[in-house]
Protein backbone atom coordinates (compact mmCIF):
# COMPACT_ATOMS: atom_id res chain seq x y z
CA UNK A 1 0.00 0.00 0.00
CA UNK A 2 2.98 2.38 -0.07
CA UNK A 3 3.40 2.30 -3.86
CA UNK A 4 3.36 5.71 -5.59
CA UNK A 5 1.68 5.47 -8.96
CA UNK A 6 1.85 7.82 -11.95
CA UNK A 7 -1.62 8.62 -13.22
CA UNK A 8 -2.69 10.19 -16.52
CA UNK A 9 -5.62 12.01 -18.07
CA UNK A 10 -7.97 9.99 -20.27
CA UNK A 11 -8.86 11.90 -23.44
CA UNK A 12 -10.42 10.48 -26.60
CA UNK A 13 -9.61 6.93 -25.54
CA UNK A 14 -5.93 7.59 -24.70
CA UNK A 15 -4.12 7.88 -21.38
CA UNK A 16 -2.13 11.14 -21.66
CA UNK A 17 0.10 13.46 -19.63
CA UNK A 18 -0.87 17.10 -19.34
CA UNK A 19 0.21 19.28 -22.29
CA UNK A 20 3.05 20.92 -20.37
CA UNK A 21 4.04 17.79 -18.42
CA UNK A 22 3.42 19.29 -14.98
CA UNK A 23 2.06 17.13 -12.16
CA UNK A 24 0.68 17.34 -8.63
CA UNK A 25 0.90 14.88 -5.72
CA UNK A 26 -1.88 13.22 -3.75
CA UNK A 27 -0.89 12.36 -0.15
CA UNK A 28 -2.46 10.19 2.52
CA UNK A 29 -4.18 12.48 5.09
CA UNK A 30 -3.34 9.98 7.86
CA UNK A 31 0.37 10.01 6.96
CA UNK A 32 1.65 12.76 4.74
CA UNK A 33 4.88 10.85 3.99
CA UNK A 34 2.77 8.40 1.99
CA UNK A 35 2.44 9.71 -1.59
CA UNK A 36 -0.47 7.90 -3.23
CA UNK A 37 0.26 9.13 -6.72
CA UNK A 38 1.25 11.88 -9.10
CA UNK A 39 -1.37 13.32 -11.46
CA UNK A 40 -1.34 15.62 -14.49
CA UNK A 41 -1.68 19.27 -13.54
CA UNK A 42 -3.66 19.96 -16.67
CA UNK A 43 -3.93 23.15 -18.66
CA UNK A 44 -6.70 24.91 -20.58
CA UNK A 45 -5.41 23.15 -23.72
CA UNK A 46 -6.01 19.74 -22.15
CA UNK A 47 -9.58 20.81 -21.42
CA UNK A 48 -9.90 21.95 -25.07
CA UNK A 49 -8.80 18.50 -26.28
CA UNK A 50 -11.21 16.73 -23.94
CA UNK A 51 -14.20 18.89 -24.86
CA UNK A 52 -13.41 18.50 -28.57
CA UNK A 53 -13.28 14.70 -28.21
CA UNK A 54 -16.57 14.67 -26.29
CA UNK A 55 -18.21 16.96 -28.86
CA UNK A 56 -17.08 14.87 -31.83
CA UNK A 57 -18.21 11.65 -30.16
CA UNK A 58 -21.65 12.92 -29.16
CA UNK A 59 -23.47 12.45 -32.52
CA UNK A 60 -22.30 8.80 -32.66
CA UNK A 61 -22.97 8.00 -29.01
CA UNK A 62 -26.50 9.37 -29.03
CA UNK A 63 -27.36 6.97 -31.87
CA UNK A 64 -26.39 3.91 -29.81
CA UNK A 65 -29.66 2.33 -28.56
CA UNK A 66 -30.17 3.06 -24.86
CA UNK A 67 -30.29 -0.65 -23.80
CA UNK A 68 -26.91 -1.11 -25.54
CA UNK A 69 -25.42 1.84 -23.65
CA UNK A 70 -26.87 0.27 -20.52
CA UNK A 71 -25.03 -3.03 -21.18
CA UNK A 72 -21.71 -1.20 -20.86
CA UNK A 73 -22.78 0.34 -17.55
CA UNK A 74 -23.79 -3.09 -16.23
CA UNK A 75 -20.34 -4.43 -17.08
CA UNK A 76 -18.73 -1.39 -15.40
CA UNK A 77 -20.76 -2.04 -12.23
CA UNK A 78 -19.67 -5.70 -12.29
CA UNK A 79 -16.02 -4.64 -12.65
CA UNK A 80 -16.40 -2.23 -9.70
CA UNK A 81 -17.86 -5.13 -7.70
CA UNK A 82 -14.87 -7.35 -8.58
CA UNK A 83 -12.45 -4.56 -7.59
CA UNK A 84 -14.46 -3.32 -4.60
CA UNK A 85 -11.92 -4.20 -1.89
CA UNK A 86 -8.95 -2.82 -3.80
CA UNK A 87 -10.73 0.49 -4.58
CA UNK A 88 -12.04 0.81 -1.02
CA UNK A 89 -8.54 0.46 0.41
CA UNK A 90 -7.22 3.01 -2.06
CA UNK A 91 -10.02 5.38 -1.02
CA UNK A 92 -9.16 5.07 2.68
CA UNK A 93 -5.53 5.70 1.85
CA UNK A 94 -6.14 8.77 -0.27
CA UNK A 95 -8.94 10.57 1.60
CA UNK A 96 -9.10 9.04 5.07
CA UNK A 97 -12.63 7.61 5.21
CA UNK A 98 -12.58 4.44 7.38
CA UNK A 99 -12.58 1.18 5.42
CA UNK A 100 -16.14 0.13 6.27
CA UNK A 101 -17.40 3.49 4.93
CA UNK A 102 -15.14 3.34 1.88
CA UNK A 103 -16.69 -0.02 1.01
CA UNK A 104 -20.11 1.63 1.29
CA UNK A 105 -18.98 4.41 -1.06
CA UNK A 106 -17.89 1.92 -3.72
CA UNK A 107 -21.09 -0.09 -3.19
CA UNK A 108 -23.09 3.07 -3.88
CA UNK A 109 -21.43 3.36 -7.29
CA UNK A 110 -22.14 -0.33 -7.99
CA UNK A 111 -25.81 0.09 -7.04
CA UNK A 112 -26.08 3.22 -9.19
CA UNK A 113 -24.58 1.33 -12.14
CA UNK A 114 -27.08 -1.51 -11.83
CA UNK A 115 -29.92 1.00 -11.46
CA UNK A 116 -28.74 2.73 -14.67
CA UNK A 117 -28.66 -0.65 -16.42
CA UNK A 118 -32.35 -1.16 -15.52
CA UNK A 119 -33.18 2.37 -16.58
CA UNK A 120 -31.79 1.52 -20.01
CA UNK A 121 -34.96 -0.51 -20.66
CA UNK A 122 -37.20 2.23 -19.24
CA UNK A 123 -36.20 5.89 -19.65
CA UNK A 124 -39.93 6.41 -19.78
CA UNK A 125 -41.58 9.32 -21.49
CA UNK A 126 -45.27 10.24 -21.46
CA UNK A 127 -47.90 10.15 -24.13
CA UNK A 128 -51.22 11.90 -23.79
CA UNK A 129 -54.41 12.27 -25.86
CA UNK A 130 -54.67 15.16 -28.29
CA UNK A 131 -57.58 17.61 -28.09
CA UNK A 132 -58.14 17.03 -31.83
CA UNK A 133 -59.24 13.84 -33.67
CA UNK A 134 -56.82 11.77 -35.74
CA UNK A 135 -53.85 13.25 -33.98
CA UNK A 136 -51.30 11.77 -31.56
CA UNK A 137 -49.47 13.76 -28.90
CA UNK A 138 -46.22 12.15 -27.73
CA UNK A 139 -43.09 13.01 -25.76
CA UNK A 140 -39.53 11.66 -25.86
CA UNK A 141 -36.45 12.22 -23.76
CA UNK A 142 -33.42 13.38 -25.68
CA UNK A 143 -29.76 13.76 -24.74
CA UNK A 144 -28.27 17.24 -24.68
CA UNK A 145 -24.58 17.21 -25.66
CA UNK A 146 -21.36 17.52 -23.66
CA UNK A 147 -21.69 17.71 -19.87
CA UNK A 148 -18.98 18.80 -17.43
CA UNK A 149 -18.97 16.70 -14.25
CA UNK A 150 -17.18 18.25 -11.24
CA UNK A 151 -17.12 16.42 -7.92
CA UNK A 152 -15.72 16.86 -4.37
CA UNK A 153 -13.40 14.47 -2.54
CA UNK A 154 -15.73 13.24 0.21
CA UNK A 155 -17.56 10.59 -1.88
CA UNK A 156 -14.93 9.85 -4.51
CA UNK A 157 -16.69 6.89 -6.09
CA UNK A 158 -20.40 7.41 -5.30
CA UNK A 159 -20.65 10.99 -6.55
CA UNK A 160 -19.08 10.45 -9.99
CA UNK A 161 -21.41 7.46 -10.41
CA UNK A 162 -24.50 9.55 -9.55
CA UNK A 163 -23.64 11.92 -12.40
CA UNK A 164 -21.67 10.01 -15.02
CA UNK A 165 -23.83 6.86 -15.22
CA UNK A 166 -27.11 8.73 -15.89
CA UNK A 167 -25.42 11.32 -18.14
CA UNK A 168 -23.95 8.73 -20.49
CA UNK A 169 -26.89 6.34 -20.28
CA UNK A 170 -29.06 9.21 -21.53
CA UNK A 171 -26.74 9.64 -24.55
CA UNK A 172 -24.61 12.62 -23.48
CA UNK A 173 -20.82 12.67 -23.52
CA UNK A 174 -18.83 13.85 -20.51
CA UNK A 175 -15.67 15.64 -19.41
CA UNK A 176 -14.95 14.73 -15.79
CA UNK A 177 -12.82 16.92 -13.51
CA UNK A 178 -12.22 15.00 -10.29
CA UNK A 179 -11.26 16.54 -6.94
CA UNK A 180 -7.55 17.20 -6.34
CA UNK A 181 -7.84 15.53 -2.91
CA UNK A 182 -9.21 12.19 -4.19
CA UNK A 183 -7.96 11.73 -7.75
CA UNK A 184 -6.91 8.06 -7.60
CA UNK A 185 -10.40 6.68 -6.98
CA UNK A 186 -11.64 8.79 -9.92
CA UNK A 187 -9.10 6.96 -12.08
CA UNK A 188 -10.43 3.59 -10.87
CA UNK A 189 -13.99 4.67 -11.64
CA UNK A 190 -13.06 5.72 -15.19
CA UNK A 191 -10.94 2.59 -15.70
CA UNK A 192 -13.94 0.40 -14.87
CA UNK A 193 -15.93 2.06 -17.67
CA UNK A 194 -13.02 1.83 -20.10
CA UNK A 195 -12.54 -1.87 -19.30
CA UNK A 196 -16.29 -2.38 -19.72
CA UNK A 197 -15.98 -1.25 -23.36
CA UNK A 198 -17.04 2.40 -23.30
CA UNK A 199 -16.11 3.85 -26.72
CA UNK A 200 -13.35 6.50 -26.88
CA UNK A 201 -14.49 10.09 -26.36
CA UNK A 202 -17.70 9.29 -24.42
CA UNK A 203 -16.01 9.90 -21.05
CA UNK A 204 -12.90 12.08 -20.74
CA UNK A 205 -10.97 12.58 -17.53
CA UNK A 206 -8.96 15.77 -16.94
CA UNK A 207 -7.04 16.20 -13.68
CA UNK A 208 -6.01 19.58 -12.33
CA UNK A 209 -7.03 22.49 -10.18
CA UNK A 210 -10.49 24.01 -9.84
CA UNK A 211 -9.10 27.39 -10.78
CA UNK A 212 -7.61 26.20 -14.11
CA UNK A 213 -9.36 23.00 -15.25
CA UNK A 214 -12.65 23.73 -13.45
CA UNK A 215 -12.82 27.30 -14.76
CA UNK A 216 -11.88 26.25 -18.31
CA UNK A 217 -14.67 23.70 -18.27
CA UNK A 218 -17.46 25.82 -16.81
CA UNK A 219 -16.75 28.70 -19.20
CA UNK A 220 -16.31 26.53 -22.31
CA UNK A 221 -18.91 27.40 -24.98
CA UNK A 222 -19.28 23.75 -26.08
CA UNK A 223 -20.29 22.55 -22.61
CA UNK A 224 -24.11 22.39 -22.51
CA UNK A 225 -24.46 21.47 -18.85
CA UNK A 226 -22.51 21.36 -15.60
CA UNK A 227 -23.27 18.80 -12.94
CA UNK A 228 -21.54 19.97 -9.77
CA UNK A 229 -21.32 18.81 -6.18
CA UNK A 230 -19.23 20.83 -3.75
CA UNK A 231 -19.18 23.97 -1.68
CA UNK A 232 -21.77 26.72 -1.93
CA UNK A 233 -19.02 29.22 -2.87
CA UNK A 234 -17.99 27.25 -5.97
CA UNK A 235 -21.66 26.52 -6.72
CA UNK A 236 -22.43 30.24 -6.78
CA UNK A 237 -19.53 30.86 -9.14
CA UNK A 238 -20.83 28.14 -11.48
CA UNK A 239 -24.35 29.56 -11.36
CA UNK A 240 -23.01 32.99 -12.27
CA UNK A 241 -21.04 31.74 -15.28
CA UNK A 242 -23.77 29.38 -16.43
CA UNK A 243 -26.38 32.13 -16.11
CA UNK A 244 -24.48 34.30 -18.57
CA UNK A 245 -24.12 31.44 -21.06
CA UNK A 246 -27.53 29.83 -20.45
CA UNK A 247 -25.96 26.48 -19.61
CA UNK A 248 -27.99 23.85 -17.78
CA UNK A 249 -26.71 23.32 -14.24
CA UNK A 250 -27.32 20.92 -11.42
CA UNK A 251 -25.83 22.07 -8.11
CA UNK A 252 -25.60 19.93 -4.96
CA UNK A 253 -24.06 22.10 -2.23
CA UNK A 254 -23.60 22.34 1.52
CA UNK A 255 -25.67 21.35 4.53
CA UNK A 256 -26.15 22.19 8.22
CA UNK A 257 -28.25 19.21 9.12
CA UNK A 258 -30.26 18.96 12.35
CA UNK A 259 -31.17 15.94 14.44
CA UNK A 260 -34.06 16.63 16.81
CA UNK A 261 -34.59 14.38 19.84
CA UNK A 262 -37.98 14.75 21.54
CA UNK A 263 -38.74 13.63 25.08
CA UNK A 264 -40.63 10.49 23.96
CA UNK A 265 -37.67 9.21 21.91
CA UNK A 266 -35.77 5.96 22.45
CA UNK A 267 -32.69 7.68 23.91
CA UNK A 268 -30.17 4.93 23.23
CA UNK A 269 -31.29 4.72 19.61
CA UNK A 270 -31.06 8.51 19.26
CA UNK A 271 -27.55 8.50 20.78
CA UNK A 272 -26.46 5.83 18.27
CA UNK A 273 -27.89 7.95 15.45
CA UNK A 274 -26.22 11.16 16.60
CA UNK A 275 -22.79 9.51 17.02
CA UNK A 276 -22.96 8.03 13.52
CA UNK A 277 -24.46 11.19 11.98
CA UNK A 278 -21.97 13.60 13.56
CA UNK A 279 -18.73 11.62 13.36
CA UNK A 280 -19.19 9.26 10.38
CA UNK A 281 -16.70 10.31 7.66
CA UNK A 282 -15.22 12.55 10.42
CA UNK A 283 -18.20 14.89 9.97
CA UNK A 284 -17.22 15.53 6.36
CA UNK A 285 -20.50 14.61 4.71
CA UNK A 286 -22.93 17.06 3.17
CA UNK A 287 -25.59 15.26 5.24
CA UNK A 288 -23.52 15.13 8.48
CA UNK A 289 -25.40 15.92 11.70
CA UNK A 290 -23.87 19.24 12.68
CA UNK A 291 -26.74 20.43 14.89
CA UNK A 292 -28.32 18.40 17.67
CA UNK A 293 -31.60 19.79 19.05
CA UNK A 294 -32.58 18.21 22.35
CA UNK A 295 -35.81 18.52 24.31
CA UNK A 296 -35.06 19.81 27.83
CA UNK A 297 -36.74 16.81 29.50
CA UNK A 298 -34.19 14.34 28.09
CA UNK A 299 -31.26 16.73 27.72
CA UNK A 300 -29.18 15.59 30.72
CA UNK A 301 -29.68 11.86 30.16
CA UNK A 302 -28.97 12.16 26.44
CA UNK A 303 -25.86 14.31 26.86
CA UNK A 304 -24.42 12.07 29.54
CA UNK A 305 -24.74 9.00 27.29
CA UNK A 306 -23.62 10.87 24.17
CA UNK A 307 -20.44 12.31 25.69
CA UNK A 308 -19.48 8.90 27.14
CA UNK A 309 -19.84 7.36 23.66
CA UNK A 310 -18.04 10.19 21.85
CA UNK A 311 -15.08 9.88 24.26
CA UNK A 312 -14.72 6.17 23.38
CA UNK A 313 -14.52 6.69 19.61
CA UNK A 314 -11.31 5.25 18.22
CA UNK A 315 -9.47 7.75 16.02
CA UNK A 316 -6.79 6.68 13.57
CA UNK A 317 -5.88 5.41 10.13
CA UNK A 318 -9.00 3.86 8.63
CA UNK A 319 -7.28 0.78 7.19
CA UNK A 320 -7.27 -0.51 10.80
CA UNK A 321 -10.76 -2.03 10.90
CA UNK A 322 -11.24 -1.06 14.57
CA UNK A 323 -10.84 2.67 13.82
CA UNK A 324 -14.13 4.63 13.81
CA UNK A 325 -12.99 8.17 12.98
CA UNK A 326 -10.32 8.94 10.37
CA UNK A 327 -8.35 12.13 9.73
CA UNK A 328 -9.78 15.25 8.12
CA UNK A 329 -8.89 15.74 4.50
CA UNK A 330 -6.02 18.25 4.59
CA UNK A 331 -4.24 20.98 6.48
CA UNK A 332 -6.43 23.83 5.29
CA UNK A 333 -9.59 21.97 6.37
CA UNK A 334 -7.98 21.27 9.76
CA UNK A 335 -7.17 24.96 10.17
CA UNK A 336 -10.72 25.91 9.17
CA UNK A 337 -12.11 23.58 11.88
CA UNK A 338 -9.72 25.01 14.49
CA UNK A 339 -10.80 28.53 13.52
CA UNK A 340 -14.47 27.61 14.06
CA UNK A 341 -13.67 26.11 17.46
CA UNK A 342 -12.08 29.41 18.41
CA UNK A 343 -15.05 31.40 17.09
CA UNK A 344 -17.49 29.14 18.97
CA UNK A 345 -15.71 29.81 22.25
CA UNK A 346 -15.45 33.55 21.60
CA UNK A 347 -19.17 33.78 20.85
CA UNK A 348 -19.99 32.12 24.19
CA UNK A 349 -20.69 28.46 23.37
CA UNK A 350 -19.35 25.93 25.88
CA UNK A 351 -16.69 23.52 24.60
CA UNK A 352 -18.01 20.32 26.20
CA UNK A 353 -15.68 17.83 24.50
CA UNK A 354 -12.65 17.79 22.19
CA UNK A 355 -11.65 20.88 20.28
CA UNK A 356 -8.02 19.92 19.68
CA UNK A 357 -5.80 18.62 16.97
CA UNK A 358 -4.06 15.30 17.76
CA UNK A 359 -0.33 15.35 17.12
CA UNK A 360 1.34 12.64 19.24
CA UNK A 361 2.46 9.13 18.25
CA UNK A 362 0.41 7.60 15.42
CA UNK A 363 -1.20 11.00 14.80
CA UNK A 364 2.07 12.88 14.26
CA UNK A 365 1.98 12.88 10.47
CA UNK A 366 -1.74 13.21 9.83
CA UNK A 367 -4.61 15.72 10.00
CA UNK A 368 -6.39 14.29 13.05
CA UNK A 369 -8.94 16.21 15.11
CA UNK A 370 -10.85 15.15 18.21
CA UNK A 371 -14.63 14.57 18.07
CA UNK A 372 -15.89 17.90 19.37
CA UNK A 373 -19.10 19.01 21.09
CA UNK A 374 -20.32 22.53 21.82
CA UNK A 375 -23.27 23.04 24.18
CA UNK A 376 -25.16 26.23 24.99
CA UNK A 377 -25.27 27.06 21.30
CA UNK A 378 -27.85 29.62 20.17
CA UNK A 379 -29.17 29.87 16.59
CA UNK A 380 -27.49 33.22 15.88
CA UNK A 381 -23.95 31.93 16.57
CA UNK A 382 -21.55 31.40 13.67
CA UNK A 383 -21.06 27.73 14.56
CA UNK A 384 -24.85 27.29 14.38
CA UNK A 385 -25.00 28.71 10.86
CA UNK A 386 -21.82 27.91 8.92
CA UNK A 387 -21.01 24.49 7.48
CA UNK A 388 -17.80 23.52 9.33
CA UNK A 389 -17.31 20.17 7.53
CA UNK A 390 -15.52 18.40 10.36
CA UNK A 391 -16.25 16.45 13.58
CA UNK A 392 -17.84 19.41 15.35
CA UNK A 393 -21.37 19.19 16.77
CA UNK A 394 -23.44 22.12 18.08
CA UNK A 395 -26.05 21.24 20.71
CA UNK A 396 -29.23 23.25 21.40
CA UNK A 397 -31.70 22.81 24.28
CA UNK A 398 -35.39 23.45 23.45
CA UNK A 399 -38.61 23.27 25.45
CA UNK A 400 -41.20 22.38 22.79
CA UNK A 401 -41.70 20.70 19.44
CA UNK A 402 -42.44 24.09 17.84
CA UNK A 403 -39.16 25.51 19.13
CA UNK A 404 -37.26 22.45 17.87
CA UNK A 405 -38.65 22.92 14.35
CA UNK A 406 -37.92 26.66 14.43
CA UNK A 407 -34.28 26.04 15.45
CA UNK A 408 -33.93 23.28 12.82
CA UNK A 409 -35.22 25.58 10.07
CA UNK A 410 -33.08 28.52 11.14
CA UNK A 411 -30.40 27.97 8.49
CA UNK A 412 -29.80 28.90 4.88
CA UNK A 413 -29.23 25.23 4.05
CA UNK A 414 -31.83 22.49 3.65
CA UNK A 415 -30.34 19.10 2.79
CA UNK A 416 -31.05 16.44 5.43
CA UNK A 417 -32.94 16.41 8.73
CA UNK A 418 -33.95 13.92 11.38
CA UNK A 419 -36.30 13.56 14.32
CA UNK A 420 -36.36 10.90 17.03
CA UNK A 421 -39.80 10.61 18.61
CA UNK A 422 -42.38 7.98 19.50
CA UNK A 423 -45.18 10.50 19.02
CA UNK A 424 -46.75 9.85 15.61
CA UNK A 425 -48.19 13.36 15.38
CA UNK A 426 -44.78 14.93 15.95
CA UNK A 427 -43.30 12.63 13.31
CA UNK A 428 -45.96 13.59 10.76
CA UNK A 429 -45.65 17.29 11.52
CA UNK A 430 -41.87 17.10 11.21
CA UNK A 431 -42.16 15.51 7.76
CA UNK A 432 -44.31 18.44 6.70
CA UNK A 433 -42.58 21.29 8.52
CA UNK A 434 -38.84 20.57 8.31
CA UNK A 435 -37.34 22.62 5.48
CA UNK A 436 -35.09 19.97 3.94
CA UNK A 437 -34.88 17.76 0.87
CA UNK A 438 -34.62 14.66 3.10
CA UNK A 439 -36.25 13.85 6.47
CA UNK A 440 -35.47 10.74 8.53
CA UNK A 441 -37.79 9.49 11.25
CA UNK A 442 -35.91 7.68 14.03
CA UNK A 443 -32.76 7.45 11.91
CA UNK A 444 -29.72 9.72 11.55
CA UNK A 445 -29.28 12.44 8.92
CA UNK A 446 -26.87 10.28 6.88
CA UNK A 447 -27.60 7.10 4.95
CA UNK A 448 -29.32 7.92 1.66
CA UNK A 449 -30.25 5.06 -0.68
CA UNK A 450 -29.30 5.36 -4.35
CA UNK A 451 -32.72 4.70 -5.88
CA UNK A 452 -34.40 7.67 -4.21
CA UNK A 453 -34.15 11.37 -5.07
CA UNK A 454 -31.28 13.12 -3.28
CA UNK A 455 -30.85 16.87 -2.87
CA UNK A 456 -31.85 19.86 -0.83
CA UNK A 457 -33.91 23.01 -0.62
CA UNK A 458 -32.84 26.62 0.04
CA UNK A 459 -29.10 27.24 -0.52
CA UNK A 460 -28.25 23.53 -0.68
CA UNK A 461 -28.92 23.43 -4.40
CA UNK A 462 -30.84 24.71 -7.37
CA UNK A 463 -33.81 22.39 -7.20
CA UNK A 464 -32.55 19.29 -8.97
CA UNK A 465 -32.46 15.84 -7.43
CA UNK A 466 -29.78 13.23 -8.08
CA UNK A 467 -30.27 9.52 -7.38
CA UNK A 468 -32.99 7.26 -8.70
CA UNK A 469 -35.26 8.29 -11.56
CA UNK A 470 -34.93 12.02 -10.90
CA UNK A 471 -31.27 12.03 -12.05
CA UNK A 472 -32.55 11.38 -15.58
CA UNK A 473 -34.53 14.64 -15.47
CA UNK A 474 -31.21 16.47 -15.18
CA UNK A 475 -29.50 14.85 -18.17
CA UNK A 476 -32.37 14.74 -20.69
CA UNK A 477 -34.56 17.28 -22.43
CA UNK A 478 -38.13 16.72 -23.51
CA UNK A 479 -39.12 16.59 -27.17
CA UNK A 480 -42.84 17.00 -27.78
CA UNK A 481 -44.17 15.49 -31.01
CA UNK A 482 -47.59 15.98 -32.64
CA UNK A 483 -48.58 13.55 -35.40
CA UNK A 484 -51.60 14.68 -37.38
CA UNK A 485 -53.10 11.96 -39.63
CA UNK A 486 -56.43 13.71 -40.30
CA UNK A 487 -55.37 14.82 -43.78
CA UNK A 488 -56.63 18.35 -43.18
CA UNK A 489 -55.46 21.49 -41.39
CA UNK A 490 -56.52 21.26 -37.72
CA UNK A 491 -56.03 24.25 -35.45
CA UNK A 492 -55.47 23.68 -31.73
CA UNK A 493 -57.57 25.87 -29.42
CA UNK A 494 -59.59 27.07 -32.45
CA UNK A 495 -61.22 24.09 -34.16
CA UNK A 496 -63.85 22.11 -32.27
CA UNK A 497 -64.48 18.44 -32.68
CA UNK A 498 -67.57 17.50 -34.69
CA UNK A 499 -68.74 14.06 -35.78
P1 LIG B 1 -15.19 22.62 -3.50
O1 LIG B 1 -13.99 23.28 -2.97
O2 LIG B 1 -16.31 23.47 -4.02
O3 LIG B 1 -14.67 21.62 -4.65
C1 LIG B 1 -15.53 20.77 -5.35
C2 LIG B 1 -14.98 20.56 -6.76
O4 LIG B 1 -15.01 21.80 -7.47
C3 LIG B 1 -13.52 20.11 -6.77
O5 LIG B 1 -13.33 19.22 -7.84
C4 LIG B 1 -12.78 21.42 -7.03
O6 LIG B 1 -11.51 21.26 -7.60
C5 LIG B 1 -13.73 22.09 -8.00
N1 LIG B 1 -13.59 23.54 -8.12
C6 LIG B 1 -13.06 24.42 -7.23
N2 LIG B 1 -13.13 25.68 -7.72
C7 LIG B 1 -13.72 25.60 -8.94
C8 LIG B 1 -14.07 26.56 -9.94
N3 LIG B 1 -13.85 27.86 -9.78
N4 LIG B 1 -14.67 26.13 -11.06
C9 LIG B 1 -14.94 24.82 -11.24
N5 LIG B 1 -14.61 23.86 -10.34
C10 LIG B 1 -14.01 24.25 -9.20
O7 LIG B 1 -15.84 21.64 -2.42
P2 LIG B 1 -15.08 20.60 -1.47
O8 LIG B 1 -14.49 21.31 -0.33
O9 LIG B 1 -14.23 19.71 -2.29
O10 LIG B 1 -16.31 19.69 -0.97
C11 LIG B 1 -16.98 19.91 0.21
C12 LIG B 1 -18.34 20.56 -0.06
O11 LIG B 1 -19.12 19.70 -0.88
C13 LIG B 1 -19.15 20.74 1.22
O12 LIG B 1 -19.75 22.01 1.18
C14 LIG B 1 -20.21 19.66 1.14
O13 LIG B 1 -21.39 19.92 1.85
C15 LIG B 1 -20.43 19.60 -0.34
N6 LIG B 1 -21.07 18.35 -0.73
C16 LIG B 1 -22.38 18.38 -1.11
C17 LIG B 1 -23.06 17.20 -1.45
C18 LIG B 1 -24.50 17.24 -1.89
O14 LIG B 1 -24.93 16.29 -2.53
N7 LIG B 1 -25.26 18.27 -1.56
C19 LIG B 1 -22.37 15.98 -1.40
C20 LIG B 1 -21.03 15.97 -0.99
C21 LIG B 1 -20.39 17.16 -0.67
P3 LIG B 1 -10.21 21.08 -6.65
O15 LIG B 1 -10.41 19.85 -5.86
O16 LIG B 1 -9.11 20.95 -7.64
O17 LIG B 1 -10.14 22.33 -5.81
Side by side, the strands of the main sheet go: 15-18-19-14-13-20-21
Structural class by secondary-structure content = alpha/beta
- CATH fold name of the largest domain: Aldehyde Dehydrogenase, Chain A, domain 1
Q: What is the 3D shape?
A: globular
Bound molecules: NADP nicotinamide-adenine-dinucleotide phosphate
Radius of gyration: 24 Å
SSE blueprint:
Elements: E1 5-6, E2 9-11, E3 14-16, E4 23-28, E5 31-40, H1 44-61, H2 66-82, H3 84-95, H4 99-119, E6 128-129, E7 135-142, E8 146-150, H5 158-169, E9 173-177, H6 183-195, E10 203-205, H7 210-218, E11 223-229, H8 232-245, E12 248-252, E13 257-261, H9 267-279, E14 289-295, H10 299-312, H11 331-346, E15 350-353, E16 357-358, E17 368-369, E18 372-375, H12 382-385, E19 392-398, H13 401-409, E20 416-420, H14 424-433, E21 438-441, H15 471-474, E22 477-484
Parallel strand pairs: 1-5, 8-9, 8-11, 9-10, 11-12, 13-14, 13-20, 14-19, 18-19, 20-21
Antiparallel strand pairs: 2-3, 4-5, 6-7, 7-22, 15-18, 16-17
Helix pairs in contact: 1-7, 2-4, 2-6, 3-4, 3-6, 4-5, 9-10
The chain binds NADP nicotinamide-adenine-dinucleotide phosphate.
What features would you highlight for this structure?
about 500 residues; alpha/beta; Aldehyde Dehydrogenase, Chain A, domain 1; Aldehyde Dehydrogenase, Chain A, domain 2; 7-stranded mixed sheet; 5-stranded parallel sheet; 15 helices; about 20% strand; globular; binds NADP nicotinamide-adenine-dinucleotide phosphate
Amino acid sequence: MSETKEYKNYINGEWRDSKDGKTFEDRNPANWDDVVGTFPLSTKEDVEDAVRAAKETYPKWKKVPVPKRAEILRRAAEILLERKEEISRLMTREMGKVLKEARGDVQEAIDTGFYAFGEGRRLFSQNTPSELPNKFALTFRQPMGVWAVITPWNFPSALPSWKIFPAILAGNTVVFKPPSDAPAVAYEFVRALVDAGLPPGVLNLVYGSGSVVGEALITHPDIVGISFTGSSETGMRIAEVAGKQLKKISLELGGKNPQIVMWSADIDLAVDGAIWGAYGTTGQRCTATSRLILHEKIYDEFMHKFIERAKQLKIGYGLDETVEVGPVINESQLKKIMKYVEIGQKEGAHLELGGHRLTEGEYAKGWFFEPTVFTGVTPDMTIAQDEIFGPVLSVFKVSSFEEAIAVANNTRYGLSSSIYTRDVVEAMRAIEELEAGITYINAPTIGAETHLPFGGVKHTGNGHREGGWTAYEIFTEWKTVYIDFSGKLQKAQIDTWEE
